[in-house]
Amino acid sequence: MTRIFFNVGIKRLCNWLIWLSTTVLALGYLRELYVLQFGLETMLKDLRHIALDTEHCLGSYYSSVLMIIAALLMAVIGQMTKTRWRRIQWFVLAAIFTAMSFDESISFHEVLIEPLRSVFSFSSYLHFAWIVPGALFVMAVGLAYLPFVFSMPPHIRNRVIASGALYVTGALALEAVGGHFNSIGGFDDTYYIMAFLAEESLEIIGLTLFATTLLKYLPWHFGFMPNDLHIKGDRRQSIDRRGRVSAAH
Questions:
Q1: Which of 50, 100, 104, 162 is least buried, going by the fewest C-beta atoms within 10 A?
Q2: Which of 9-18, 173-182, 198-207 shows the lowest per-residue confidence on average (mean pLDDT)?
Q3: Which residues, in sequence order, are CB contacts of 81 under 8 Å at separation 6+?
Q4: Closest to 206 in 3D by CA, of 25, 9, 11, 10
Q5: Where are the chain's structural domains?
Q6: With contact defined as beta carbons under 8 Å apart, do 51 and 29 qualify?
Q7: Please, what sign has the CA dihedral across residues 49, 54, 55, 59?
Q8: Measured between alpha carbons, how far is 117 from 217 in angstroms, rounded to an integer?
Q9: CB contact burial 202-225 (16+ within 10 A = b; e otherwise)
Q10: Is the pLDDT of residue 229 over 70?
């Protein structure tokens, strides 16, 4: 009975996160359509509080909340992990996501743009110069955590990789594309608007996928595994709580 309630609760939380993310993105897109149709000088002004490309708005704060949720889930998983080194890895990831959440709220990374741009003469795709140290940081963390990720159960590992790819593509690759068009036509440039909408969408989708993946990973640590056996061909793979796979014939 406890197992049933646990899994139902996890499913409901995942559905809530998906619906919330969809709502935030839909409001951001509606805002852009509203401004395109009626302009900025209206009774509702520019509806900046639901914009996706404005700091200190719904989209930014929601992304920050998703990061905190992910950080809390990783801290819980780390606390339940028996292996000391594995526990430390989870806690470090939780700390990184907590720092990312605060940065999303206060926009510290934006402070780096002008100094880096003036020192290194960054332009075009590096117009938003913070992506340079950001990319180096992502590469360092990604390489360091490759063994960690590939030791996860296959269905969890694939979702983690997919969520990371979505988020990084939005936060870095599309930020670079948006910076290029912004340097040419400013914030009202049509291609820039398309780029930042795609960027924010991929970031929120990636974070949502990661948070729901962590929620689905929790039952493995509590011992409520909905599928103890994964069938591949004529081999059965039994996966324990720590994600170790053992084959049985």
A1: 162
A2: 9-18
A3: 87, 90, 221, 242
A4: 25
A5: 2-241
A6: no
A7: positive
A8: 41
A9: bbbbbbbbbbbbbbbbbbbbeeeb
A10: no
